[in-house]
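Internal tracking record. Fields below are filled automatically when a chain is submitted to the structure queue. Please do not edit lines marked as system-generated. If the sequence contains nonstandard residues, flag them in the REMARKS field before resubmitting.
Queue: standard
Priority: normal
Entity type: single polypeptide chain
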Amino acid sequence: MMNRKRIQIEALKNSNGDWIIEDEQFSRHAIDHFHELFTEESVSPNLGLPNYFSRAAIFDFQALVRPASSEEVIVNTLQGYMAELVSPNQVSFVPGRHIQDNIVIAHELVHSMHRMRGRKKFMAIKVGLEKAYDRLNWNFIVDTLVAAWVPEKLQVIIRDCISSVGTNVLWNGNLTEGFKPRRGIRQGCPLSLYLFVLCVERLSHLIRESVEVEVWQPIRVGRNGQWISHLMFADDILLFAKVSENQIAIVCAILDRF
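SYSTEM-GENERATED OUTPUT FOLLOWS
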């Protein structure tokens, strides 16, 4: 039998530039890092974000209030309403939609931008949400569920699902002491996919509102084509707007608000 040498971290530089070499210091530093990552300051429940979630599914949502034995039961029912709740700009984790659709649209838009003549130009900005799952605020999740007309009883069940977990850090093959995260959703949890898509949909609402009041100037292919301000690929987002300092400021302001 072949013995494989376990890969271990022998030294680690902390944020102050000092090297850590003791095992006990390793564990403490790892716990402190992830505890800070999953700890969020309180966020006001009144976020003042626009709400474009369809209320059509509110009556069907009552089926989700029935006692559920696991997160999978909630997911299997919830996924049937995602197409009603999530705008066509988002194609990830929504049944019946395919990521290739947005890829084709993005290629066509970029190709059209290169062919444009005259003084009016457009820009495409790619935004990646850093550590998207880890930094998702629980109060923001609940606020999104309220905005999506999810029944209060189901809100409580989902809140319990995401907040009842404990976390350990596997460090050099050994588990550190556990701690309770205060934000974030679990990678690999089937419920996390849909919660994330619903929360990112709030950014789509902000963009949609700014387009409707003619603050954001989106791109259009052809005279009779559809106006397109953004395309979403889960946690990667493509933004389209007219090239100007004013439009850049508007895009930055909306991203900062989100």
